[in-house]
Design a protein that fits this description.
The protein is α/β, with parallel strands linked by helices. It is built from six helices and seven strands.
């Protein structure tokens, strides 16, 4: 079934009688796979080629509309470096969606996706977290991980899958739209 695109709401659009649902979305994966770039492209349609690594956790929010419902997204971008791992488990709590990112030009980041999924399962205190595996940096030519490998991994773990390019703004909106749609669907059926 097709779903409506996420549309930004202005302050004026948010009337007193319109309910707002808050969703917590995590963006996790190895260092330098483009997690922050994906988040910044989605939040304010920017791309910084000289972006510094995230230290600890970065938080951004955006109000969107999904199928006529106003949704406040809280997006938590976690550092991929091992030295910050002790900080991240507390941020996993109550997450309803997770984007697990790898770099299609660095096979080792793809091979670590299963460990990120295990960490997510260990620290998230919900059983209904919607997960999406994202192969980022499809604009680069030196690909080491095929689309088919990403799809197979996603099937094995029953997650959503998409490839994207934060640089070219390819599939970034679709990535978050699809994740939020599925999270909203699970919330609706569990009411």
């Amino acid at each position: 079934m097709a779903h409506k695109k996420l549309d930004d709401y202005t302050e004026d659009d948010l009337g007193q009688d319109q309910p707002i649902t808050s969703l917590k979305i995590l963006v996790i994966g190895e260092s330098n796979v483009g997690k922050s770039s994906l988040m910044n492209r989605f939040i304010d349609d920017t791309f910084d080629p000289n972006m510094a690594n995230t230290i600890g956790v970065d938080y951004r929010s955006r109000v969107v509309n999904v199928d006529g419902q106003t949704v406040q997204l809280g997006i938590w971008d976690t550092a991929g470096q091992e030295r910050f791992r002790t900080l991240t488990p507390t941020y996993y709590r109550n997450a309803q969606g997770a984007v697990i990112v790898y770099d299609v030009t660095r096979r080792q980041t793809f091979e670590r996706v299963e460990q990120w999924l295990q960490e997510l399962d260990a620290y998230v205190n919900r059983t209904d977290v919607v997960k999406m595996i994202v192969g980022n940096k499809t604009d680069l030519k030196n690909r080491e991980v095929s689309r088919e490998e990403g799809q197979q991994l996603a099937r094995r773990h029953s997650t959503l899958f998409i490839e994207a390019s934060a640089l070219e703004n390819d599939n970034v909106q679709v990535c978050f739209e699809d994740l939020v749609y599925h999270v909203s669907y699970f919330i609706e059926i569990h009411k």
